[in-house]
Amino acid sequence: MNKVTLIATTTMGLEAICAREVKALGYEDVTVENGRVVFTSTVDAIPRANLWLRTADRIKILVGSFKAFTFDELFEKTKALPWADLLPPHAEFPVIGRSVKSTLFSVSDCQAIVKKAVVESLKKQYKRGWFDEDGPLYRIEVALLKDQAQLTIDSSGVGLHQRGYRALHNQAPLKETLAAAMVQLTTWNVDRPFADPFCGSGTLAIEAALIGQNIAPGFNRDFVSEQWHWIGQEKWDRARQEVEDLAKYDQSLDIVGSDIDHRSIELAKNNAAEAGFADLISFKQMQIRDFSHRAQYGVLVANPPYGERIGEQAEVEEMYRDMGQVMKSFETWSVYVLTSHEGFEALYGKQASKKRKLYNGNIKTDYYQFFGPRPPRA
């Protein structure tokens, strides 16, 4: 197999950022769709995309796409796809599915038919009547949208947001992929201070450190497609060597995280140590009204509480007022805040330079961006 079409799935709102990452890897045939970025390249893009894409949830391989109004149509068109090019005779290939606004609305039936069709296709190619499925995992997905069926295979395994550094987290953790997007949407660079005054388990600070030192987010984890024969160990070794060669481990960074909860601080310290940043990121127990920093032209990025639980709103709104008062003293700083509270700007005391809609899990939020002045050229 030479060329493959890959689908990088994303959280809604992150598609453009993910597409920019894909293009930065050197891939030009890129299409942005709702919740995903589609691109075509050679097979070595599979290891590279899994290792490098910070805002993608999964990397899927497109096997085929076609209209299917009947179960017979779904069976025959699935069977006609080149499954033996992808699945070895001992492959484990469970089928998952979903159906939206389609004639074939029974997901369990669609899964069963696709499974049967793949088996029949493999029987024909491998000249055998039974498959033990005791080898590498190839998870197939059949997705139907308005009667258009799409067959893919997941190359990631565990979701890409699971970097491997966050063994423990607090009750409402910020997803690593969203945290990486929040950092990339700022004006921060390695010459400027970075601060998160509501650090929780430290995700924003750690993602900033990964970006600052150009460390691939997948450097510390495994992927299901590492076991696939048609990719091969050589391509994975080459991709991991590229990760090592491009990392800037000696890059100094000024990154601080703080939180009012001492348990969160301990959690953040442990996670930072797991990521290899124990001596690079500073964490301190502190409430927002006591925030301080000596440097100019810093970037503050925050995912504060939203006040959605009963009894929390008054406390959270007071916190937003405190943040606004504190940041008046930091005239050269840029501030970025993610919250679902629609009255945030009024409480903060300033209108945002720009707002961007993002989803934190199932919560619709706004990313408020307050641009400070550009730092003078060195």
Automatic annotation (TrEMBL):
Annotated ranges, domain THUMP: 45-155
Keyword Methyltransferase: yes
PROSITE patterns per record: N6_MTASE, THUMP, UPF0020
CDD domains: THUMP_AdoMetMT
Lineage: Bacteria, Bacillati, Bacillota, Bacilli, Bacillales
GO molecular function: RNA binding; rRNA (guanine-N2-)-methyltransferase activity; rRNA (guanine-N7-)-methyltransferase activity
Name assigned to this protein: Class I SAM-dependent RNA methyltransferase
Keywords associated with the record: Methyltransferase, RNA-binding, Transferase
UniProt keyword annotation of Protease present: no
InterPro entries, A to Z: DNA_methylase_N6_adenine_CS, RlmKL-like_Mtase, RlmKL-like_Mtase_CS, RlmL_1st, SAM-dependent_MTases_sf, THUMP_dom
A UniProt-annotated Pfam family: RlmL_1st
